[in-house]
């Protein structure tokens, strides 16, 4: 079964999000650098990518470009603690599916579950609706 690929250098945040998604029944692969993310994608095409904007070895925006060069349809969520107004327009121009504020943890978790569900169900819709999922929410720095 394809996995959700979480790319973030904050171990606590990644652990919380991974546990939430696994509890909902979704397999998860994690990476803390772009190098690890590239290796993960070479190993298996993910169901959904959720990538931090700022990583130790590069930008999530640049990784978005790499993914879009080979796959225009894969759901790609760019998550950051930065104000979305600072990067969202550029990310949309580059083909991001969704930009999310990491500090709104439960909302991000719900959107990841929704995208994963749609991919597994074969849905190709890009519009989102609320699902009302409730589960553990982790607070990070």
From TrEMBL:
SUPFAM superfamilies: CheY-like. The keyword Nucleotide-binding does not apply. Residues 3-117 form the Response regulatory domain. GO terms for biological process: phosphorelay signal transduction system. The keyword Membrane does not apply. PROSITE patterns: RESPONSE_REGULATORY. Keywords: Phosphoprotein. The modification 4-aspartylphosphate is found at residue 52. May play the central regulatory role in sporulation. It may be an element of the effector pathway responsible for the activation of sporulation genes in response to nutritional stress. Spo0A may act in concert with spo0H (a sigma factor) to control the expression of some genes that are critical to the sporulation process. This is Stage 0 sporulation protein A homolog. It comes from Hungatella hathewayi.
